[in-house]
Specification:
Strands 6-3-2-1-9 form a five-stranded antiparallel beta sheet, with no helix packed on it. The protein has a four-stranded antiparallel beta sheet with strand order 5-4-7-8. It has helices spanning 21-26, 55-63, 93-98; strands at 13-17, 36-41, 47-51, 64-71, 87-91, 107-111, 129-136, 144-150, 152-153. By secondary structure, the chain is an alpha+beta fold. Helix content is 14%, strand content 33%. The chain has one domain. The chain contains three helices and nine strands; from the N terminus they run E-H-E-E-H-E-E-H-E-E-E-E.
Length: 154
Amino acid sequence: MCGNSSRPSSGGRIAVMFPSASTTNHMNLNMNINPYTLFFYEGDRTTAIFRIEDPLTRAAFHDCESIDLRIERHGDLTSALTAPPLHQFRLRPSYSRKQGMTAIESEMAFELPEKLDLGVSEKGIVGRTVTVVAEGRMMLRMGMGMGMGVVGYD
């Protein structure tokens, strides 16, 4: 691990997600997307947990109808997203909201439909770019990039 941290490792994987330039340029909706974290944990299937501390960013996620979570084949944040991703999942925050989640909570958890390789390998997700695109009411039915990051060890 690089540097010193008082935070213990959770044993999962983490991607710190930052809004892309296109997100901030597209934001004529009077809202800003701030950095947030995306965690991946092993189980029978992989669980993805969005930890969103900023209230405005959290509200944007809770208002969307779906989230497109892509794990790309590369780890280069500067390359264009033209190739098919290694993994792609359509997540439904509105379904999570019906299950008791409120807009006040800072985490949204989704069980992915398959178990991901959380290591470094041909199919592993460590070192790969993650992109998040939201669709829904605030996004005017067109996808809006909500962030990009690279998966690493937590």
